Amino acid sequence: LAKTTQPISMDSYEGQEVNITCSHNNIATNDYITWYQQFPSQGPRFIIQGYKTKVTNEVASLFIPADRKSSTLSLPRVSLSDTAVYYCLVGENYGGSQGNLIFGKGTKLSVKP
Amino acid sequence: DAGVTQSPTHLIKTRGQQVTLRCSPISGHKSVSWYQQVLGQGPQFIFQYYEKEERGRGNFPDRFSARQFPNYSSELNVNALLLGDSALYLCASMMGQGPYEQYFGPGTRLTVT
């Protein structure tokens, strides 16, 4: 299974764009890259998933270079409510048929006023 | 529609005791996965159940067991509790065996003293 490395913590201010980079040097051909968000005392929530190039939805963008050895989650114009832990996952699409999601330690994002 | 529900919200047990945690998936979802999240770490996969059968198992001792009922709800049982079992236990449901997006519940906070 591909191991992921992401910063332990990041600070930002309201209204700024935040980019969180995740390294996954040993990503396999069939692996997807998925990001989850988790607030204290809540379960993780799916943000975005991609395989290559760029994916955008209503809350975030995911940039994946051609070699797929890293990825960047981009959160536009963050607010205080975006303060959370963000997890980068690499593995089978949505955890595959066994539903086995592999979480690392995540990045704790703190948004300040 | 109601999301994934878990009960109880909090639980305090003594070492050596047994505990049962409950999960009700989103209506229409037939698969349930269980995760353990120790403070400061990402969730770790314990089990996946689909159509009342175990479909995936993480690296946890035999003290951990689970089952799924005909209505697709699930129970996680932990015997002979250890201090190290103190954690947030998360349940996630998805439509089928996978791969599908997983939706997490709020978790049950277990404290072992």
Tally of extended strands of chain B?
11
Structural class of chain A: mainly beta
Q: Please give the largest β-sheet of chain A.
A: 5 strands, mixed
**Alpha carbon gap, first and last residue of chain A:** 39 Å
- Shape of chain B, please? globular
- Biggest sheet of chain B, open or closed, and with what strands and sense? 7 strands, mixed
Order of helices and strands of chain B: EEEEEEEEEEE
Q: What does this entry look like structurally?
A:
The complex is a heterodimer of chains A (113) and B (113). Chain A has 113 residues and is mostly beta strands. Chain A has strands at 9-13, 18-23, 32-38, 45-50, 53-56, 61-64, 70-75, 84-91, 107-112. In chain A, the strands form two sheets. A five-stranded mixed beta sheet of chain A has the order 1-9-8-3-4, with no helix packed on it. A four-stranded antiparallel beta sheet of chain A has the order 2-7-6-5, with no helix packed on it. The radius of gyration of chain A is 13 Å and the shape is globular. Chain A starts with 8 loop residues before the first strand and ends with a strand. With 113 residues, chain B is mainly beta. Chain B is built from no helices and eleven strands. Chain B has strands at residues 5-7, 10-13, 19-24, 31-37, 44-50, 53-57, 64-68, 74-78, 87-94, 103-104, 108-112. In chain B, strand 7 and strand 8 form a beta hairpin. The N and C termini of chain B lie far apart (37 Å). The relative contact order of chain B is 0.33. Classes of the chains: A mainly beta (113), B mainly beta (113). The A-B interface holds A 41-46, 87, 92-106 and B 4, 31, 33, 35, 40-45, 48, 55-56, 58, 88, 90-92, 94, 97-107, 109.
Short synopsis of the structure:
The complex is a heterodimer of chains A (113) and B (113). Chain A is mainly β and 113 residues long.
Give keywords.
heterodimer, A: 113 residues, mainly beta, five-stranded mixed sheet, four-stranded antiparallel sheet, 9 strands, globular, B: 113 residues, seven-stranded mixed sheet, 11 strands, 50% strand
